Amino acid sequence: MGNVIAFMPASGGVGSSTLAAAVAVRACAAGRTVVAVDLDPLAGCLDVVFGLEQEPGWRWPELADVAGIVDGLGLADELPVSCGVPVLSGRRGAGWDAAPGPARSEGWAEPQGVGEWLATVPDVVAGLADAHDLTVLDLPRDPAVLDAVALLVDAVVVVAGTQVPQLAVASAVVSGGRRLLHRVRDAGRPWESEPLLPIEPWVVLRGQRVEADLEDLVMDELDVPLVAALGDDRRLVAEVADGLPPGARGRGEVVRTADELLLRLIDQSVAA
Question: Is 28 exposed, middle or buried, given 0-12, 13-18 or 19+ CB atoms closer than 10 A?
Fold first, then answer.
């Protein structure tokens, strides 16, 4: 089974999906087999980040009847591809198509609800991870989605903004994510199962300018690894305008951060 790395925003607008896409693109450029998976049932727009929203290929609705671990190579062959990366995404805004009311909670794969969709997620991710060197997951800020993949991930990256309200939210997200990962990976597994590598969330700070004293403050407050500080990257605008995914040109702050994350993931796998 290949490595699985998940990206989760601590708040909106911090570029978590952008960084996830850049990591996938950079890993593929380095010769690794990679697949990217969108796990946000409301937005479902990772194909937009990759410039694939108009391309044919399977999305989550085609997997409504999944039962058991999927054939990862077969599924990847059905997905739209950008820069060598197959992308499993959803229909934009599909989560808002349901009729209002407490009895309806429709997700991507209608008529399934979000609960039924979440039940299929581990089988899809496991199948893709079995067939690829790296599986990149783009998560929403939703503990139920993190819970669904907690036994499969090797790293969880929380992308946090640098403004005071964003940092306050990040503190809650990181501490909650840590508790969930520990619960699921330790207490939630049968005693006879092989032990899993403990996971502490990795934090990436995203802001116009990140000062060194802020980095120190965040590390002291959150008590988790601060793996990178990511400033604004004007190259992203040009890449989007040209229909390219983040990191496609191999330069800029986002590429540097993506490479740092990949090296850290490799070092962790070697140490394990």
Answer: buried
Say which amino acid occupies 55: E
For residue 219, pLDDT beyond 80: no
Contact between residue 121 and residue 167 where contact means Cβ atoms under 8 Å apart: no
- Determine the Cα–Cα distance for residues 245 and 21; give it in Å rounded to an integer: 7
Tokens encoding 172: 């809650």
Q: Report whether 124 contacts 75 (CB < 8 A).
A: yes
136 closest CA partner among 93, 84, 179: 84
Nearest to 234 by CA among 220, 254, 217: 254
Helix 164-182 vs helix 212-222: crossing angle, to nearest 10: 40
Determine the Cα–Cα distance for residues 47 and 236; give it in Å rounded to an integer: 16
* Non-local CB neighbours of 88 within 8 Å, separated by 6+ positions: 35, 36, 37, 38, 58, 59, 60, 75, 79, 124, 128
| Confidence category of residue 111, pLDDT binned at 50, 70, 90 | very low
CB 137 within 8 A of CB 6: yes
Confidence band for 240, pLDDT divided at 50, 70 and 90: confident
Rounded Cα–Cα distance for residues 126 and 72 (Å): 8
Residues 6+ apart with CB under 8 A from 259: 26
Tell me the per-residue pLDDT of 35-47, one tens digit each, with 9 for 90 and over: 999 999 877 689 9
| Reported confidence tier of residue 104, pLDDT bands at 50, 70, 90 | very low
Vertex 250, ends 232 and 12: CA angle to 5°? 35
Beta bridge partners of 4: 135
